[in-house]
Write a structure and sequence with these properties.
This protein is mainly alpha-helical. Helix content is 79%, strand content 0%. The protein is globular.
């Protein structure tokens, strides 16, 4: 009887959490097919049919295509750089003994507690002086750095779960430090790679504050800015605005659905054994 009650309560809890998570997404998607009057009157259903023209209007009213290309390029490059740097740093911190290890770990920890708003003015001044303002390179560097603390700790937690005997066997067979890392450790860390990669990609894809502050031209801006521009200039066309929102969030949802098994496996391994 206790097991049945426990399963029932678990099911109810999961249904409530799923409902809270899905209702806003369902509301946004359904609103993207409605007219302005239907959205403002909060009617259910599609009384005047599906307004697919909201999507064409979204691309006409805002330069979403340009922002899309910039977001894809920046998110992919920032994710790759972040994973390469943080995975190598995490492996060295876990496997090597040196005096500066506590200092390096503390520096990564500082990145978790410093609010992003405190970095805007220093970054703006630095980027202006180094001619990185209004460049895709500047945003890539910022997003790569912003995600480092999270990626570092995800990789540290997972690498700690890897038996050192595997690396010892590789060393006995003649592998060096770097070759052992590339051929033995990296293939095993695929779940953690997927977890950190998805988190980093979402950060770079959705970030708004730095993208708005550190860029000034339409050709250099990313997708979240499209919604800001769209809202401020064409706030009366809510159907098109919701359509633009769907276009913005769709890639992140698809990527998470594709990678969800690896993400869950990476988080579970790190939380249990890390």
């Amino acid at each position: 009887m206790k097991k049945i009650v426990s399963k029932l309560l678990t099911a109810i809890f999961l249904i409530v959490i799923a409902g809270i998570s899905l209702v806003p997404i369902i509301w946004v998607v359904s609103s993207s097919f409605k007219s302005n009057s239907e959205i403002l009157s909060a009617v259910s259903g599609f009384q005047t049919g599906l307004h697919l023209d909201n999507y064409t209007n979204a691309f006409k009213l805002a330069p979403i295509t340009i922002f899309y290309k910039n977001s894809i390029f920046i998110a992919i490059v920032a994710t790759i750089l972040n994973l390469i740097i943080c995975t190598m740093a995490a492996y060295v911190v876990v496997r090597c003994r040196f005096k500066a290890k506590p200092l390096i770990t503390m520096l990564f920890s500082l990145g978790l507690i410093i609010p992003g708003a405190a970095l805007i003015q220093p970054l703006y001044t630095t980027f202006t002086a180094t001619h990185l303002y209004n460049t895709l390179t500047g945003l890539i560097l910022v997003y790569t750095a912003l995600g480092m603390p999270t990626t570092f700790y995800v990789m540290v937690s997972y690498i700690k779960t890897i038996p050192y005997s595997l690396e010892e066997a590789a060393y006995i067979d003649g592998c060096g430090f770097f070759r052992t890392f590339v051929q033995i450790v990296l293939p095993i860390t695929r779940p953690a790679f997927a977890t950190a990669g998805v988190i980093q990609f979402l950060l770079a894809w959705n970030e708004f504050q730095f993208a708005l502050t550190l860029t000034g031209q339409t050709e250099k801006r990313t997708l979240p800015i499209a919604l800001y521009y769209f809202k401020s200039a064409f706030a009366s066309d809510y159907g098109a605005m919701f359509a633009a929102t769907v276009v913005v969030i769709a890639p992140t949802i698809i990527i998470f659905i594709i990678m969800q098994k690896q993400v869950v496996a990476g988080l579970a391994a790190g939380s249990v054994k890390g």
